[in-house]
Predict the structure.
Amino acid sequence: LSLFKIMKADEAFYIRTIRSEEVYLQGYLQNLTTTVFLQAIEDLDSEHHLDAKDKEFYARFYAYGVSGCIISWIYEGMKSTPEQLAEQLEKLVEDTEKIAYRKYREQVSR
């Protein structure tokens, strides 16, 4: 949320940047979010069920989606509030976690 608030406060800069240097900004956001997701996956996989290759793939997958949402938000002129964007992304994470937990329970109960 704090990143989105910072971006919103300097909205003109990010809109100009996305129009002239989209590849740079997208790469930056993907690297940042990949790092965040990789750490989250490491923390969640305390029993080491996933191998490093899968963790990296999953982190990149989610990072690409999240950075894509942020890029779209900028392109759309940041019309929704930082809080709304953060809520949507948080809901995505929570729903994904619920689905994964259900799948895990199904596998364990077999």
Q: What stands out?
A: Residues 14 and 56 are 28 Å apart (CA to CA).
